[in-house]
C-alpha cells in the first residue's frame, strides 16, 4: 500500500512540475516575442566598390538595411560617415533615404586626405539606442601620392605614361 502511495505522490509531483515548466516556457516565449516586436534589431551593411583608394577618387557604395532577417524600411534614413582613424574626427557625413531596404551613392574623397586608414561607419538613428557593436564599421585605406613627395610628370611626346 505504501508503494502505491509513493508512486501516486511521485506522479503528482512529476505532472505538476511538467505543467509548471510549460507555463514558465510559455511566459518566456511571450516575453521574448513582445521584446522583439517592441525593440526590433535593425542591421545595416555597406558594400564598397573596393578597399583601397587614392585621395581625390570617388568611393561608390550600396547600403542594405535588414530587420528580422529581411529587407527593412523601419528607418527611412541611413547615415554614412567617413572617419579618420588616426585623429578620430568625422571627415564627412551623408544622410540617405532607404527604399526597400536599400540605398546607394558615392563620396568624393577630398584631395587633402592624408595617407592612412579611414573608417566607414553606417547606422540608423534607431541603432544608436543599442550597443556600439551593432553599428556597421568598415576600414578602408586611402593613399595620397603627394604625401610621399611622388610627383607625376607627363612626357612631352604625347604619351600618357607618367614619369616618376
Query: How many helix segments?
Result: 1
Q: Secondary-structure element order, as H and E?
A: HEEEEEEEEEEE
Over the alpha carbons, how many angstroms does the gyration radius reach?
Answer: 28 Å
Query: Could you describe the largest sheet, including whether it forms a barrel?
Result: 5 strands, mixed
Number of β-strand runs: 11
Low-confidence stretches: none
Mean pLDDT across the residues is: 83
What spatial order of strands do you see in the largest sheet?
A: 2-9-8-5-6
Characteristics of this structure?
alpha+beta, 5-stranded mixed sheet, 4-stranded antiparallel sheet, elongated
Note down, in words, how this protein is organized.
- By secondary structure, the protein is α+β, with helices and mostly antiparallel strands.
- It contains 1 helix and 11 strands.
- It has one helix at residues 2-38; strands spanning 42-48, 52-54, 58-67, 70-71, 77-84, 90-97, 102-108, 116-123, 136-143, 153-154, 162-163.
- Strands 2-9-8-5-6 form a 5-stranded mixed beta sheet, with no helix packed on it.
- The protein is elongated and about 95 Å long.
- It starts with a helix and ends with a strand.
- The relative contact order is 0.16.
- The model has no long low-confidence stretch (mean pLDDT 83).
